[in-house]
């Protein structure tokens, strides 16, 4: 299994600076709107029928304090060109780039 890591930048809604509580509220609402729009697609990836390559087993979306910047981690069996498909699912003006593909070396959990 390998993990592809994508960087996603979504255009900020309303040009919020995040400096006031009103800006923070608008940012949180924009983040929730993004999550509501993209979640069904991310949820569907591991449920796709098995094929020769690109079988997704796990999808994780990480967000930062910068409300329009995300990291997407997709665990899969063999590489496949997901970035083109992903670009069509994101809001207009979003930028997505592949940070890299990594093999899991070790995992720790409680």
Helix/strand layout:
Blueprint (H helix, E strand, L loop, with lengths): L1 E8 L11 H24 L11 E8 L5 E8 L5 H8 L5 E9 L7
Antiparallel strand pairs: 1-3, 1-4, 2-3
Number of separate structural domains:
1
Q: Assign the CATH topology.
A: Alpha-Beta Plaits
> In angstroms, what is the radius of gyration?
15 Å
What's the total number of strands? Answer: 4
Distance between the termini: 21 Å
Shape: globular
Mean pLDDT, nearest integer? 86
Low-confidence stretches: none
Physical arrangement of strands within the biggest beta sheet? 2-3-1-4
Give the CATH level 1 class: Alpha Beta
Q: Give the % helix.
A: 25-40%
> Which structural class do the helices and strands define?
alpha+beta
User: Can you tell me the CATH architecture?
Assistant: 2-Layer Sandwich
- The ordered string of helix (H) and strand (E) elements is EHEEHE
Can you walk through the features of this model?
With 110 residues, the chain is of the alpha+beta class. The chain has a single domain, classed as Alpha-Beta Plaits. Helix content is 29%, strand content 30%. It is built from 2 helices and 4 strands; from the N terminus they run E-H-E-E-H-E. It has a 4-stranded antiparallel beta sheet, covered by helices on one side. A hairpin with a 5-residue loop joins strand 2 and strand 3 (69-76). It is globular, with a radius of gyration of 15 Å.
């Amino acid at each position: 299994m390998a993990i592809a890591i994508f960087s996603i930048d979504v255009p900020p809604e309303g040009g919020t600076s995040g400096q006031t509580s009103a800006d923070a509220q608008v940012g949180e609402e924009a983040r929730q709107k993004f999550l509501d729009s993209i979640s069904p697609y991310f949820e569907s990836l591991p449920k796709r029928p098995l094929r020769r390559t690109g079988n997704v087993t796990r999808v994780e979306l990480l967000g930062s304090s910068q409300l329009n910047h995300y990291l997407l981690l997709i665990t899969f069996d063999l590489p496949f060109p997901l970035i083109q498909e992903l670009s069509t699912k994101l809001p207009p003006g979003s930028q997505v780039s592949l940070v890299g593909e990594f093999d899991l070396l070790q995992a720790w959990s409680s």
